[in-house]
Amino acid sequence: MSQATQAAEKKTMRPPIESGCPDGFQYLHPLMIKNFGNWKYHDRPRPGVLHHVAHSGDEIWTVRVGTTRQLDTYALNLLCDIIDQYGEGYVRFTIRSNMEIMVSKWEKVEPLIKALNDAGYPVGGTGNSVTMISHTQGWLHCDIPGTDAAGVVKALMDELHEEFVTEDMPNRVHITTSCCQINCGGQGDIAINIQHTKPPKINHDLVANVCERPSVVARCPVAAIRPAMVNGKPSLEVDEKKCICCGACFPPCPPMQINDPEHSKLAIWVGGKNSNARSKPTFHKLVAAGIPNNPPRWPEAAAIVKKILRVYKQDAKDWERMSDWVDRIGWPRFFELTELPFTKFHVDNWRGSRYTLNASTHIRF
Amino acid sequence: MLDQLESGPWPSFVTGLKRLAHENNMMVDLLGQLEYSYKTRLGYWKGGTVSVFGYGGGIIPRFSEVASMFPESKEFHTLRVQPPTGNHYTTKMLRQLSDSWKKYGSGLIAFHGQTGNIMFIGTTTENTQHFFDEINEYGFDLGGAGPCVRTSMSCVGAARCEQSNCNEMKIHRLLVNDFIDDMHRPALPYKFKFKVSGCPNDCMNSIQRSDMAVIGTWRDDIKVDQAEVKNFVAKKGRKYVIDNVVARCPTKALSLNDDDTLAVDNRNCVKCMHCINVMTKALSPGDDKGVTVLIGGKRTLKIGDTFGTVIVPFMKLDTDEDYDKLREIAKNVIDFWAENGLEHERCGEMIERIGLVNFLEGVGLDVDPNMINHPRTVSYIRMDDWDQEAEKWMQRKQQAVG
Description:
heterodimer; A: alpha+beta; Alpha-Beta Plaits; Sulfite Reductase Hemoprotein, domain 1; five-stranded antiparallel sheet; four-stranded mixed sheet; 10 helices; B: alpha+beta; five-stranded mixed sheet; 14 helices; globular
């Protein structure tokens, strides 16, 4: 392209309006504007419904409905039709991709729920239920995924549907999934994450052209990558004895393929919590690994998740989140109740991890 | 294989993809590629460089590695668009976004990504610009992608929650829009995320997944409606209240009186929210509200997950000056990190590397015992200027008394 044409093209380009984050206030339900910052209390008349009362005496009902997160325009417009017809045109999304539809009259709640259910959308996810699984992009759109995201979640939520629409758990259960070890899905009461078990397979012919080698070397958490000449070309080599198979080198260097249909497994972690309620926030801990990455329904992972949930439901007391429950009963009992094997891999062994070991005689028999 | 995900009680995204494929060839091939991924158990997207005029980020480019088999979806980029504060929408606005996307994209939208963006998934390089131009005209802007300030999130907050202690929406917009240049033109060591929760329940998970977490809290007494306490005890029984409210208080600050009222040792309440969560009618946050600021939360890459650390135990957010102070803190943190962070090093990783004390000196904040779980256990440290440091503390205490 000549400079003149470039300049001409520039002229026709529209400069962006850097408006940043839109003000949500303009989209609030009128009752929420009127009572902004002036709410008094809330209760839950039934699973999936919140009822908030303001100091002014105003009341608002919220119906929470599970979605697929990845919504197609038809589904979105269908939901909008329902919200317009049975709700009042106002809606928000929770962090776990549930929709919350606000209405000003109790009488509107049941017809709204029925319309949503008839369209195939479950109402629930409130209080001590298993709410929608927060998830990532997976094979649909991610550049480094070891597994799918939306498919795993669909398969699991099919199994946990009953726990979504009821409030029968000791406390709320947040499940997360992540399709690589970066853990975009985040901390959860139960987290189902990819765990690679083999070092990256390197295509040495491509590395020099595709990867900025020093940044890839710097990316490795255990300094296992070094520059090397391979087949007469500049490339990178991995010290496989050091490599922890985390996959950190793969995003900046796609020829270092970490994903493997056989050796990328799933691991399950429990006891993550972000709220400050009772105990301080916690990270989830490893309980199971080596689980086959088995689309389209991932039955092995689902079976372990269901087993953990069943035991938690039976054994935990009211208001105990997964981490509170394990703190009370201890890890040995957790492994006993869930019948999961305890291995050397459950013991943290990095340099700063001694604080995770039991330096006491506090032992339950 | 994907067909098997159309059965079962939970709504199916596969059914949605198929609906779009009826009139959109891009989605036919996208389904083909996804099915291929399911069969081979591998992903086939690679990144690249796509942006809109005037910006350096906000688009997640995706080029197919199996484009020869699935040519129609060889370009399948995502636009990250900032949602309104609190994720509030009207159906009118959702329809408008949906119509624009139908015109220029695949028709697939995710509400929302893990950082908080509305993700418009699947369009060509050319249509990226057209779609952005259209939605930008009616008030939407791209979020962040790459080493920049990222899209933020705020909870439902004061709009519909009695536990809110701050104006989450205002804080959210103030912080993000103040750094809009750092969002659209990535030039930081790595990503930087703000998240805002109105109370310590932290519904936005800000402690674990944001570089700067702003969480509403209060300094005075929990508000107790003793009549409602009595109602609650009458309804649930004393045992339930003792086991689930009194005994679950992390600092043993609660006691049930003989007349079924509640005694609160407010001096030792750590604002964990548990009792307020259980007794929503009887208990509420106090009136002297403000926020706690924590720095350095992130996910696993590269040193493992980190929590945010308290750097401001409490600050008021009432006046314009208060908000300026919050803005100032954010600016100092980002400036110091931009200057001292290594490439691809999150703010929390930098703190891990240089130590909290150096970080505090760098951003001009005083050390405070609320920042630690306990004082140091290792004696290997030089303390030449102990006396000066002790004097500083004494002076600060005097100033506080006035």
